[in-house]
Amino acid sequence: MIIAATIVKAQTCQSPVQRCCAIALLAATGLMASGALWADDTSGAPTLTEIIVTAQKRAENLQDVPISVQAFSQQELLDNRVTDLKNLSILAPGVTGTSSTSENSTTIRIRGIGTVADNPGLESSVGVVIDGVYRPRNGVGFGNLGEIDQIEVLEGPQGELFGKNNDAGVINVLTKRPSMQFEANGELTVGNYNDKEVWSSVTGPVSGDSAVRLYASYQKRDGFLTIEPGLGPNTDNNANNRDAYSMRGQYLIKPSEAASFLVIADFSKRNESCCAAVPTVVGPFSGIINALASIPVLGGRPGAIGIPQSNPVNAFDYDTYANGITSQQIRDMGVSGQLDWDLGVGKLTSITAWRDNTIQAGNDVEYTGAALASQPATQANETDFKQFSQELRFAGKDGPLSWLVGGFFSSEILTPHSTFYAGPQFEPYIGGVASAAATGTPDFLLVSQLTGKPPGSTYIPGVDGQADYFLQTDKSYALFTDETYTIVPDFDVTAGIRYTREQKTADSHYNDPDGGAGCTSLLTSPGLAALGPASPAYQFLLGYGCATAFNPFFTNLNTVQSLDEGKATGTIKFSYHVTQDLMAYASWADGYKAGGFNLARVVNPAAANPLAPVTNTGYPDETVNSYELGFKSTLAQNTLRLNLALFDEQYRNLQLNTYNGIEFIVTSLPRVESKGAEVDVDWLTPLSGFSLSGGVVYAFTNIDEFGTAIATFDPERLNNRLVFAPLWSGSLSATYQIPLSASLVIRAIATEKYNSSYNTDSSLNPVNLQSGYGILNARLGIGAPDSKWSVELWADNVADKGYKQIAFAAPFQYNAYDAFLGDPRTFGVTFRVKL
Question: Which residues of the chain fall below pLDDT 50?
Fold first, then answer.
């Protein structure tokens, strides 16, 4: 009843401020708390379990760490079906996770700051560290994480201790280690959309001083998007399915109490038809697309559907349009070795790792039922990322001083292939659009009339387009140190500094299989010149027919770019334990993310020759200065944990990736500021077995200065708030465990994540605003008190709330927009067993 009343109250708060203020009020009065395991004090009363985190590369109580950290236990993650980085956001206020053309293109943002993952040249502002190994791109860290022991969300710049970049924060994932006690676990899930999931693990001793843990999982699920019948060759009925398996093995050897060595190897593979976009706004030429798809004389077939005919479009009918095959084959693997050796004077830690991530991705480029353009799912569209990293650190304690020194090295090889072909209906499409823009009547033979070539021979399907190859190498070197000194009892100062050297080289090889013959034919045709540059027909013909993929000036163009930069960053923190249960702190840190290169075709529309390739595609480094004040408290006889932080993060040259319907444009925003406050609370209520947890974040993340990047933004934008930056974000989780007998308990869990409105399009076009919404997940389970077995009914997105993940300009469709959607309501049953 209490859970139901809380959910009803949250759902009935209509405005963003009302809703988040309601959550904040609950937090302030202690009505939010942890689903973590309880402990007992000496009187036998339940108390909060101490949370140990490694936010400063040493094990510490969460309440003693002078930075803002959210920590989620194994039980909390199981209760909320958190198996990867993206669905972590249901628990973490201020954290958003989005995916676009594939689930390998996943982006994590903290306090509104992150980096769009579609361009492989861009690295993330939010770092991902899994079992001590830094993953430079969120997509490389995406996937089934196995048996998770704890996830820590470190907010604000963390590059001083956690590797390069990470100027917006770090997601630190710790998986379960091998045990010297035998244990076996298994889980089976079945759900709607024909969902089938299974995983199992086993751990135990191999010898007197070593142990092993093995894990394997598999999931297969139909997609939630219905593909409307298009021209073909796509014969799938749905999109956004999942078909994935993963394996993870760990071997721990502990020859003495002073030394241990852990080897971790993992492998995962995903074969999916993902991820399709849906139209949200159709442009003025939707009738042309439908004519091409359905009229045989135009190369279509009767009954084929190209796209919705008119606005408004209900994107949450979950209908997508794709004549071409959309598929991904993603392979991720790696191995790491961690040595921990207590030498008496200090502890030596060495982490050596190698990783390889590969994706072959085919795509129906324009997301319509017409055959306009495509990317084949072959090695011609393969991106491979290899990384070797080595971290070495030495830490110890000498009286009032806790010290740490270390070094880090990373070597990366990134090889993206990008192939893009015109489809059989591209030529009549651009002719129809150009003539309709000029006269109101489409002429599907306009291109052949201008070039004098037979219809369909100016842009040859599967030949006219681009076949580019890039090779980027990156070497990063760093030295760092971090010390905490107790000046007087209860008053500590922590200071750290890091020097990072970054060396990158990008070899770009551009190629047009037919030399850009289609665009060349247009440019040299007397008929085009007769139209005149001011003619709408002229502008559409060149805008689409000479888009970067068909631009002949890129033919056989090879460029080499390099950068060599160094940066010193640091932090200083002051913390004071006012009492044993109350700690106040103040901190400053600066952060740095290296510059890089746009690994795509780039032109300058304002140049004398707007088709001339830009051979310098570099962008500068991104930096931040961050200030934070806060306190951490444990109250009410260790049943209430209340933490508050005020923050101000000032970014310079924030790296931004924008898609304009034709090409990806990488720009830098000179000044972006994210400032606000956040509250995190855990509470064991007086009602036995009932706990609450959650938090609220207010983050005003605003573009203070646009610079030359202003050209990529919509002039009609509603405000200057950064894309994907909700003003309010809150999460509330309730857990109620009731013993039915000595051998049976029932557990109920409800979690809601709320985001106020934000724009989902990097250009801030107002049509792509996502209104405020809440996602409610619920669980009801019954099982043994010792978790030997359980059966759980669950539902995610209970209210079936439709929301946009990412919106963007529809490719080759004037004034039209598409979006990648979040999952609709899913539900099922899970069976768990432990031996």
Answer: 1-14, 16-43
